[in-house]
Structure to design on (242 residues):
């Protein structure tokens, strides 16, 4: 398993945000989540798409792992009072084998030894997955590449994408590792921007959307739930999404 150490690099676009942070060794760990009563919560359909055939990543390309990621979203995507916001449900799971059969441009965009061009991704996603279920988020797992760190880069992204949201998660950030990547990027998918935590260290409890973007402190642990203002933004966008 590779070890990656990376300095934080953040680049925000109108409809997307990327997030890179310092990483730790990645390993597959047991994960159990017990669902509570959430029948009255707004439903978010999640389709998991595995787009990398990197040998080290293949152990994550299983339906069991996707259910782990779903459990993570359902447990940690919460407000300040630790109350759940959405009920995330699996819509589909596309293994790498399933994805590769589509032979779409998205594979070329994500699987080349070059930095991702964010402006090219929404169109490639739409072309590859033209039909979307109502309130569906595509959870796309890939292997990030950066000019400086090469494949040691772990940049992940969240795209609001005009109501057809999707997130890009580096495979080494699965299993709720490296600052809650999937939860953080899902916040971007529902319209949230980064927030700053001046003087925060890597061990400081911080809001889920905290970033090194402001250069005033670390992104911290990203373990504190969304504020009332953030919750209002997300629910408003949820209601607007087809």
């Amino acid at each position: 398993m590779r070890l990656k150490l990376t300095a934080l690099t953040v680049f925000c676009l109108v409809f997307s945000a990327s997030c890179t942070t310092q990483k730790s060794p990645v390993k597959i760990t047991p994960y159990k989540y017990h669902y509570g009563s959430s029948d009255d919560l707004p439903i978010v359909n999640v389709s998991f798409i595995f787009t990398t055939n990197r040998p080290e990543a293949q152990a994550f390309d299983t339906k069991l792992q996707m259910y782990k990621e779903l459990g993570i979203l359902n447990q940690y995507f919460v407000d300040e009072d630790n109350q759940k916001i959405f009920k995330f449900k699996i819509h589909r799971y596309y293994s790498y084998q399933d994805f590769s059969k589509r032979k779409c441009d998205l594979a070329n965009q994500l699987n080349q030894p070059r930095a991702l061009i964010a402006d090219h991704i929404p169109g490639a996603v739409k072309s590859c997955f033209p039909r979307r279920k109502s309130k569906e988020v595509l959870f796309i797992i890939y292997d990030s590449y950066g000019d400086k760190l090469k494949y040691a880069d772990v940049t992940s992204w969240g795209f609001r994408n005009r109501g057809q949201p999707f997130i890009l998660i580096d495979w080494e950030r699965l299993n709720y590792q490296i600052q809650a990547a999937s939860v953080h990027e899902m916040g971007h998918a529902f319209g949230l921007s980064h927030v700053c935590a001046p003087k925060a260290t890597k061990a400081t409890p911080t809001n889920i959307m905290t970033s090194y973007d402001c250069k005033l402190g670390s992104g911290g642990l990203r373990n504190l739930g969304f504020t009332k203002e953030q919750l209002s933004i997300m629910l408003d966008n949820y209601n607007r999404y087809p």
